[in-house]
Amino acid sequence: MRYLPHTEQEIAEMLQAVGAEHLNDLFSTIPDSCCTLQQLDLPDPLTEWELNEHMSGLAASMAVAPEAKVFLGAGSYDHYTPAAAVQLLSRGEFVTAYTPYQPEVSQGTLQAIYEYQTLVTRLLGMDVANASMYDGASALAEALLMAVRVTRRKKVAVSEAVHPLYRRVVNTYFHPTEFEVVEVPYGKDGRTDLSRIGSLEEMAAVAVQSPNFFGCIEDLQAVSERVHTDAKTLFIVGFTEPLAYGLLKSPGGHGADIACGEGQSLGIPRSFGGPGLGMFAAKMTYVRQMPGRLIGQTMDKDGRRAFVLTLATREQHIRREKATSNICSNQGLCATASAIYMASLGGTGIRGLARLNYDKAEYLKTAFHDAGLAVAFGSPTFNEFVIRFPEGSEQTYRRLLEKNIVAGLPLVRYYPNLKDHYLLCVTETASKEDMDTLVREVAS
Questions:
Q1: What pTM, to 2 d.p., does this model score?
Q2: Domains in the chain, please, with CATH?
Q3: At what angle do helices 332-370 and 432-443 cross, to 10 degrees?
Q4: What does the pLDDT look like over 344-397, one tens digit per residue?
Q5: SS3 at position 204
Q6: Sheet of 384-388: strands edge to edge?
């Protein structure tokens, strides 16, 4: 990090330039009742090298790869990013680009978003994608609201196998509305129990996640056929790991009306939980009900290819009552990162990487099974799976943390019935030696 403090002389010169005598004069418009008049209890200032040492100490207290062996996914995944993608993204034209309201001076930004949209539709098998959204959770909530607008119905169904934090965001969105969120239980195989969906006559949409929170691959074809027995109900497929669709049939291939989720694993570092990338795609039939913005391709007056902001359905652009969302925006730099990542790997590379992730996860799952530990669900999985640890798993988990091994995510916090169950994740970054060590430590 940079260490650039201002000297007293520099501060005085800046105050003089703006016509102020003291720093407090800059805040004179704020009423005293809104100000804290007491001194803040802040630590003493540090020198540059003291600050670096302090930050290094804080960093060392956290279990972070590659120093720690982290078998934790649950919506945020550790993948290698090609050096070329990192280098391209660091270009100033991408880093400083802002919302492309003026197409005549924003062709580069518009083209980057257009390329991102194109790659997303190909990966998800959908007709049209928007310029991205904040993250996967808000994308799912916006998809359900979109279904309400399309169908004019007041109920939506969400599988309990959808990421718990995504469902929490959905409930936050829907709580102040007149609409109802119904949760559909998962079955013994870890997949959504279709028999519990119930009547679809009042349902605007049914949303499932695949691979779901347990890593289980949902039978999307069966869900699609069940949902589409009602002509109006929309089928929404969510995801936290889009890389899976390099190996699995896409949501669009199963008849999904909307596909949405988190794109962090496509070239975006984990960064302790953010920023993320909300991917959002749909059938062309519903394009005018999509939230966010959409970039299109056209021709300029000289017959050259050009890009424009084709749809912008936020309240900043149109009447509030016509807006499809008033808080969603696109993650421009993150979307560009994922576009560069997908283009760098290409279809063959994404497919090969997905296969590698699948094979490594299967190796670890089989190793746990051979060591006598129970695999919780029998459904096929991708990247993640649930293992039931022996009794006293809390002590085992803490013991492994002391050895710099993060043995997955304890599920009891989100699913009280899954005590001693842990969600483990493997990507291409995990070595055979690390996986063997994890199994040996848990089984001992």
A1: 0.88
A2: 69-80+347-443 (3.90.1150.10), 83-342 (3.40.640.10)
A3: 50
A4: 999 999 999 999 999 999 999 999 999 999 999 999 999 999 999 998 889 999
A5: strand
A6: 374-375, 384-388, 421-425, 409-410
